[in-house]
Structures are given as C-alpha cells and as structure tokens.
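Lecture 7, part 2: worked example. A protein chain together with NAP.
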Amino acid sequence: MGTVIKGKPVADKITDSLREELRGFEKLTKIPRLGILRVGERPEDLAYERGATNRCKKIGIDVEVKTLPMDVTQEVFIEELKAYNTDSKINGILVFRPLPEQINEEVIKYVIAPEKDIDCFSPVNVGKMVEGDPSGFPPCTPTAVIEILEHYDVQVEGSDCTVIGASMVVGKPAALLLMNKKGTVTVAHSKTKDTKAVAENAEILVVAVGRGKMVKKDWVSDGAVVIDVGINEDEDGSLCGDVDFEQVKEKASKITPVPAGVGSVTTSILAKHVVKAFKKQHQIE
Ligand code: NAP
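Predicted complex, written out as structure tokens:
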C-alpha cells in the first residue's frame, strides 16, 4: 500500500518559514497586505477566503476584503481593481473568478498590476511561467502540486508525468511547471482518445478533471506517485477527489488524499506569493 502524502506538513513548513521571514522585517513599519476583490457571495469563494485569511493571519500578513454586488458594472469593478493597484499598502491582489458575465475577464486580466498579481491572472505572469522566469507568480494550486512533490522527495526531473485536465487554472500550468522541472509531460483533456492509456504510462500522475473518483486502480502503474487536485461531492455528499482513493492507494507508491491534500497547501502558496510581492516592492533581498 502506498504512503498517503498529506498537505498539512507542507503547509505548516511554508507557514513557519514565512513567519520566521516576517520576523526579520520587524524593523520595517510596513506589514505585507493581501487585497481580496470578491463579487457576490459564492460559498466556494467564501470558504477559500476564510482559509486564506486564517493562513495569512497566522503568518502575520494583513488581509483586506472588498466585496462588490453581483450586478456591479465592469467600469466600477475596474475602478476598484485600479484602486488596489495604486494603493501602496496592498502588496498582493486576489480576484475571485469566474467573474459575472457583464465583466469581461479578457479585459480585466490586462488591468491587474502584474507585480501584485499573486495568482497568475495577468498575461505577464502567464508568460513568465511559460518562460520559466522565477520572478513571476504562477497560479497557487499548480504551485502547491510542485511543493508537495518537492516536500516528499519525488524527483520530477526525467520522470514521465501525465496531467489529466488542461484548464488554465490547474492542468495547463501544472504541466508547464512540471516541464520547467524537466519532467517529460503528457497532457490529457476532453478530446484525448484514451485518457486511461496516457495515465497508465505515468510515473507521476496529476489529476485535475472535476469528475469524482474517475481514475481507477487499472489506470495507474505500479508505484506511481498520484496527486489528486479534484474536489467533488460523492453520492453521499462527502468530499472526494478525481481519483478513487481507496482503490488507487493499493497501487500507488505515494498518493494525496482529498480532503487534506493539495487544497491544504494552496493558501500557504498564496501567502508565500504575498510575501514575495512585498519583498520585491520594498527591495528586500
Ligand atoms: P475545469 O476548468 O472544469 O477543467 C477540467 C479539465 O478536465 C478540462 O481541461 C477538460 O478538458 C478536462 N477533461 C474533462 N473530461 C476529461 C476526460 N475524460 N479526460 C481527460 N480530461 C478531461 O476544472 P478545473 O478548474 O481545472 O478544476 C479541476 C478540479 O480541480 C475540480 O475538481 C476543482 O474543484 C479542483 N480544484 C481544486 C483546487 C485546490 O486547491 N485543490 C483548486 C482549483 C480547482 P477540456 O479542456 O478539453 O475541456
């Protein structure tokens, strides 16, 4: 049976190291500050906001939340975003997506200041990720995947990696980050002829599809490392991943659980990015 690799030790390590780093800034009068821009009250946004706020507070990062009504106009939304861009007390900005349909994300992504864009909304940060430029901010969830692999000593370099799912939020950036680490990467999406076949070839399998328990035991090679990004509800209303955990753990060498896996690391990456932005904005090495 494989080892269950949990997110908490990874998140705790990042939290401790950031807290320590912030102690070193005590001579500064300024405190890193995250600005959240949320439209409406979607339960998943509120849950993430709570997690992110708690994580930041634990570390010593201030959090400010601006909420806008669901019928907010694009003009007002842009005004509020620009206000965060120019507010010198705000170091990182998180915009919850998807935005309501009257707000065009294709416009907004060019408005957010790239140096405050801690979750890779701006094309500048997408470009930096493609180039492997470490000065940018890759998206938090795929970065959490990489942190987990590093924490548990999984070697990406030279490994055959398969990513199932190709969204801009998880799958595609996860594939790029694995490639930047010199993994040999295959990506499966909705038009892939045989997703099971590409999964079977993987030494490292990252799954981000959004279909509960889709990946079964016979999809996974013996000893593979399986990272499950999915968050779904099963037939009993309990949380489950995209991987059939009970089956696949018998075959994998290492496997993340859901909940308590990737999701628990994401907010600590967010906090790490706020501190990185703060340091850059204050020319701290
Ligand atoms: P998404 O935007 O719906 O994307 C799903 C991806 O899966 C798409 O690229 C789609 O292909 C692909 N796909 C669909 N059916 C497939 C199949 N049979 N074989 C291979 N690929 C297939 O979802 P997402 O935003 O990436 O999220 C994926 C999962 O991760 C969800 O469960 C979500 O809740 C979870 N999530 C977790 C976190 C976290 O912090 N843990 C953060 C974000 C998301 P096409 O591109 O061709 O449509």
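The chain has a mean pLDDT of 97. DSSP finds ten helices and eleven strands in the chain. Keep this in mind for problem set question 3.
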